[in-house]
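#lab-general

N.A. 3:47 PM
ok so I finally got the sequence cleaned up, no stray characters, all 630 residues accounted for. can someone with queue access submit it? mine expired

B.Y. 3:52 PM
send it over

N.A. 3:53 PM
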Amino acid sequence: MSSRIDGDKSGQVPSKVRRFLRGPRPESVPRLVGAACTLVGLLDIAAGVFPRFRHSRVHAVAEVLPGALGPFAAALAISAGVLLLLLAHGLKRRKRRAWRAAVVLLPAGAVAQFTYRHSVIGVLIAAALLALLLRHRSEFDALPDPRSRWKALANFVLMSAGSIGLGLVIVNSHPRRVIGDPGIAEQLAHVVYGLFGIEGPVAYAGRVSWTVGYSLGALGMLTALTTIYLAFRPEHPAARLTEDDESRLRELLARHGGRDSLGHFALRRDKAVVFSPSGKAAVTYRVVSGVMLASGDPIGDVEAWPGAIERFMEEARAHSWTPAVMGCSETGGEVWTRETGLDALELGDEAIVDVKDFSLGGRAMRNVRQMVKRIERNGYTTKVRRVAELTEDELTAVRGAAEAWRGTDTERGFSMALGRVGDPGDGDCVIVTAHRTEEGDTSPYGDLKAIQHFVPWGQDGMSLELMRRDRSADPGMNELLIVAALAAAPQLGIERVSLNFAMFRSALARGEKIGAGPVLRMWRGLLVFLSRWFQIESLYKFNAKFRPRWEPRFVVFRTTRDLPRIGFAAMQAEGFVTLALPRLFPRRRPARQPRPCQHLTAAPAPAAGNPVPARTARTRTAEECEVQAA
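B.Y. 4:20 PM
back already:
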């Protein structure tokens, strides 16, 4: 019996061998080929730049890789390496055009290798990669990304900077052949001249000058050709919300808008939309840096959400975009994860105030109550109105003030921002304004001192979308307007008000309580440190003033390794990171005048002979006394 069993085992092929013979899984081929192109490209660049590398053992491997050719080996190796690096990203993302380019370049490189070097190994490497591409060509079916002429300008800037940096390395890679002692200015001039095919001021002994010249010329040619290609290819602009899309979304919001406080923000016109096959649900999104970024829950009937989510995922797969959802509710997160297999992570909490439970009475509301009363004694009045009730002149003043008081060059907000004020289609939005008439006031906006803009949340709710104030106004404007909005809510038929979103709120709240563990305290300390640049702790404390109930919000993602990319795309969408050329003439903004905080109590006088320390003698400004929302 044992001999029979042993005989059966000896006739079987080990599982590892079978997996090797089958080759890689089809879904892993794009990443594998992209990684191979990246490695080959780096080795080709190293072979073309560093002379010592040509005599190393690693160069024996690079010698047989596609791209190291003929009499102009250095220039051609650098060119091939740069092209392979550019091509690798598209192959990893399953782009059809990258596949077509690779299918053309690999046989050309193999033929050139065999012609100039008679390298059989180089032909085999190229043939192996080509065989993978041809066998799994169905994996490379991703459609092109949205593009515009601006990408050509960005390519020119980035390729020029990269070529200059790599050119300086090339110029300094032959220290023993340099004649004289050229400075950095001469080296930089030699690189710039070389990119245009002109001989520079740096001289070399022997044939090194030809090698450096051809290498720099190849970099310049690559920069020019890629820029020309991007500039003259057909435009494929990013999708935008059409009038028909907006009309269909408004119909869905009219029937189901009360489910999600972020629903109205789906009407941002820089978003695209996919509808379920039945048309009863929709998902709006924006593509940022290859991430298909949705926000909030799907719009429409919950039973139709899976159909809209499926269309969303199909669109992401068709373009090889990374799917992600920012700020969905717990119900939305459960549907997303169940229907797609994605994962979810708690991002923060949304502050929601129930109008019937809100009151300025009690010890907990003392600070807000005192601040509001003080501002009212200073002569400020408030108005709470629907957008449809404002005159055209008033809307013009509100729009102008919102633009002037923005505080940043770009508009911020994506998941909880509408991006416009006073649009004819947004007549049911609510605008809360603060006013005070002052003698000698030359403001172009009259007595207007602060603005808050709320968007509808179903029939009985509203969500805070915008907070702006005149920098010369008294601190406490935001508290005053929120209290005024809550006081006027019953007359408007409003029962619930959504305030700001507090990121990582639970970590901040639990980390400051007694008994918090070291990891939680460390995490809270990091968040407090980051609050110097981002409004993390300040928004949490500002929202907590109004005693809200907290509703968790989640980020939905595919894999953990996608989180850094999703986070960067979200920061771009929210306006915290702007990938744009620097402005030569930035817009001038009026200088902020520090104002003493009127509601602070005076510090006790120092003892005689003891000077007041500089840190405590500093007067706090109005901006430091009040939380400013983005």
